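Worked example 3 (structure in, sequence out).
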C-alpha cells in the first residue's frame, strides 16, 4: 500500500522502531488520535510523513531552567 505521495505505509512495528517505543504504545497513541493512522479492513497502517510531523511537533524547545526558591 502506498501513500498519496508514493511512499509505502508503515506497520505499527516500523513506527515503534522509528520512535523507540512498543507496538502497544503505537496502537494506544493511534487510538487516542495522537498519531494519525489509516485502517484498511483489519490492518492499521501509518503514513511516514505523519510520523515525521508527530516527531517534529513533539520537539521540546530549550528554555530557561526553573529556579528553585527556598
Amino acid at each position: 500500500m502506498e501513500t498519496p505521495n508514493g511512499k509505502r505505509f508503515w506497520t505499527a512495528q516500523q513506527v515503534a522502531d522509528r520512535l523507540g517505543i512498543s507496538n502497544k504504545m503505537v496502537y494506544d497513541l493511534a487510538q487516542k488520535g495522537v498519531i494519525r493512522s489509516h485502517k484498511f479492513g483489519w490492518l492499521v497502517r501509518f503514513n511516514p510523513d505523519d510520523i515525521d510531523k508527530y516527531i517534529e511537533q513533539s520537539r521540546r524547545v530549550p528554555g530557561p531552567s526553573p529556579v528553585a526558591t527556598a
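Notes: Residues 5 and 56 are 19 Å apart (CA to CA). Helices lie at 12-19, 23-32, 48-57.
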